[in-house]
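Appendix B. Chain record.
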Amino acid sequence: MAKEDKRLVLAEEDCIGCGICVTVCPTNIKQEKDINFDVDSEPRAIAVDNGQAVIDYDLCKACGICTKSCPVDSLTIEVVA
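Structure tokens predicted for this chain:
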């Protein structure tokens, strides 16, 4: 049986840009611990830009922690074939 791949999905129409997802993301937290990390220039797994969450699929591990913290349920995990 093949391993299921997961992907974080954003319902843009529901996102309020609160940034809670950014603060709970384990990938972002790990990046921030690096002394050389520059929050203004380096990509993050999930960030807020112009009042909207933005997912970097190269960095996002689809762990689902942000989905549990989103106050408007705009983030979900989807299984992709």
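Further analysis of this model is presented in Appendix C.
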